[in-house]
Amino acid sequence: MKMSNKEERYKIGFFDSGIGGLTVLHKALEMMPLEDYIYYADTENQPYGIKTKAEVRELVFKAMDFIVSKNVKAIVVACNTATSVAIEDLRKKYDIPIIGMEPAVKPAVRYTDIENKKVLVTATKLTLKEEKLHNLISALDSESIVDLLELQELVQFAERLDFDETRITKYLENQFKEIDLKDYQTLVLGCTHFIFFKDMIQKLVTKEISIIDGNEGTIRHLQNILRTKKSLNQGSGKVEFYNSGVIAKEGKDLERYQILFRRLEEIEKLSLGY
């Protein structure tokens, strides 16, 4: 879907299978408050992490066509699963910057004392199966010091707005039961949904393990692209929310997003104590 350069483009599009991408949008609003945003959550079709690659690709392109029709100047695919499946083909189709997400393996390896410790990468089922992640680990020559752990159910917990610490900690303990935490220095949150549970994960793994994600790096990359194109700071921080193409209006839908933003602010405050 090519667009004329004469068409006005000033908003930034954010896309995710559900509400996980709000964690990236939240970081964008902190770092780029003078921009306007569109947030598209494919709520009718989430979660993506348990679908086939072909199913995810079809859903992603449908969503992208909608977002591009809003004359956005850039799109952040704020979903690790969608990025791993479709990012290269998206960039071939559209003539605006498409910024993807990937697990923050590179900074994690750089941060870790790899002579003595390892990195644990958490992600969804599909992300863990995709070649993109394994190629990234291979390119860093880090196969021996990077381990993988699936935390798929955290996506469903987040989408249900279920942040019950007792219930989620029980799930996490079960997933981590084969993991010897003494072996690790760094844990990567390889799905944007997982950030909603960062405080609970941190409590489980203790402060001896640093938890990182790719959100800030993604927004810095976006900033650099917009600065190069001289299209930075063209708005006022306004956000339009769409659920599978239907605009979210006052009421239950917007209240849901407000709850999630408050959850992120709560996690940031708690993180200061770790």
Automatic annotation (TrEMBL):
Question: What reaction does this catalyse?
Answer: L-glutamate = D-glutamate
Query: Would you identify the family this protein belongs to, as annotated?
Result: Belongs to the aspartate/glutamate racemases family.
The UniProt annotation places substrate binding at: 16-17, 48-49, 80-81, 192-193
Q: Which UniProt keywords apply?
A: Cell shape, Cell wall biogenesis/degradation, Isomerase, Peptidoglycan synthesis
Q: Pfam families, alphabetically?
A: Asp_Glu_race
| E.C. code | 5.1.1.3
Top enzyme class, one word, equals: isomerase
The job of this chain, per UniProt, is described as: Provides the (R)-glutamate required for cell wall biosynthesis.
Query: Part of which pathway?
Result: Cell wall biogenesis; peptidoglycan biosynthesis
State one molecular function term (GO).
glutamate racemase activity
The active site is formed by 79, 191
Kindly provide the name given to this protein in its UniProt entry: Glutamate racemase
GO terms for biological process, alphabetical: cell wall organization; peptidoglycan biosynthetic process; regulation of cell shape
Tell me where the transmembrane regions lie.
none
